[in-house]
Amino acid sequence: MVATRGSRLKRIFFDRLFQRSYWTWRKHPAIIVPTMLGTGLSAIGQSIITFAAIVVLSSFAVQNILFDFLVTIRNQGLIQALQSPGYAPTIIPTAVIGVAILAVALILGGGFVYSAEYATYLEAWTKDSATFRSIIDNGSRTWKKMAWTLLLNTIITWGPLAAGLILLLQTLPTTAVTPQGLATFVASSYAFIFLAGTSLFLALFTLYTYAAVVVDNVSGIKAIRQSFHVASHNLPLTFTYAVVRVIFQLLSILITVFAGFVGLPLTAFATAILSLLLTPVLHSTKTMIYYHAGPAVTEMPFTLTDPIGNDLFRRLPRAAWVKTRTGLAEIAQFLASSRNLPFHAASVLALTVGILLGQFVSNNGFIRFYLDELLYQPGQLNPLLTQVIPPALGVDLFLHNWLVSIAAALAGIGFAFPSFQVILFNGFILGLITPLIPDLTMLLAILAPHGIIEIPAFVLAGSVGLKLGYASILTRARPGPGSREYLSLTLRQAVYIVIGLAPLFLIAGLIEADLTPFIARMFGWS
Questions:
Q1: pLDDT for res 519
Q2: How crowded is the C-beta side of 520, counted as CA atoms within 13 Å?
């Protein structure tokens, strides 16, 4: 089957596969969980970067050179600051170690997440089933093959683009522009366009690489070869999928940009739609295109009972509310169990340490004096509050903070540290800005109205993330059915808790956009 997959051009209807993918997503909501784990994987990468940044800033604050470092960046640029002997011995080793850890984490974590994702799509279609336990099992089954394939596929597909970008950056005109230098830059620009086009061309033919790993149990070059084979023998269908995906991406960008001009921030809304709806449906469709390319596989019968549009606006909101109520009940059970107190304490500790570190860096780095030089005015509200329609801003804040909470909770599967770091970093930002506010009354006025809901919700997301991390550590330390079952149950709990947090973040977002500015002005903010 592997050798002949895609060798026979069959009539496969893209619209039928796409519609089946949507209804499979509706029937088995658990297939969205791997995408949420992908959000957690992004948070793992960000936690590594933010941890390195906190280490550097704290080190400079201890040495009393943070203010000079910021001034050097402002006056001479980041490159010049990195070359300075006063800063390079701290920044360069931290950056090198951080990049190495980041690459390893994204490759290994990507192997697990992609294995869970594509195998779960296949299972939902062929077995009409998708459970939290199967997600864990699917991710564990082929993660090594998927990680190796992910590494090779990334190098082969996007290597030309990276080479072109490096070439372009090396030939950027300096302050002294010469005819020879300008000619070199123009030539490198053409080379960049060619290499970028090469990467896009390769991306079309490597479209099915990850699906090949779970469908045909191949990896590395064999998976990439299989993807080329299927794409080349089903080129119209492959091109249709690529065009549909690009159209969805462009529509999302255009709607977001246009809405921004009229005071409707929709960035977080577009991100939520792409992450929680379009990505699972499109990736499921792609997997099924590859699966049905096998000559022995016939397209499953499917009858459309209700248009997708009707379902989106009528039944989907009710289904979402049912899941939200389940999430609220899960939150109550999670808070009521004394076994979860250590995770709550650790999450509160992460926030507290972050606040203290942020205040230390702010006070010892003379951040206020640095911002004074940039004409920052303490006690002045964000101008965005007067440029955006408040309810729309509230919804955007809600979705942004909710997506961050999803990342904080699901990142815990990376052995707990990422969830701890996400909460710590948010505390760090809070601690960084508190010394800049003139007095405690003004601080409480700008923070308390929405923060009394938002901050505990973040801490709760971090708490369940730490529990998920504990479950993943237990699975590695004591492999067996019991540990894996505990991990799957904790993953289910984490997913439902972040779903249940949505109403809390919605209330906090609306308060932050509508009520907080009014209260802040009463206590001295302008």
A1: 85
A2: 23
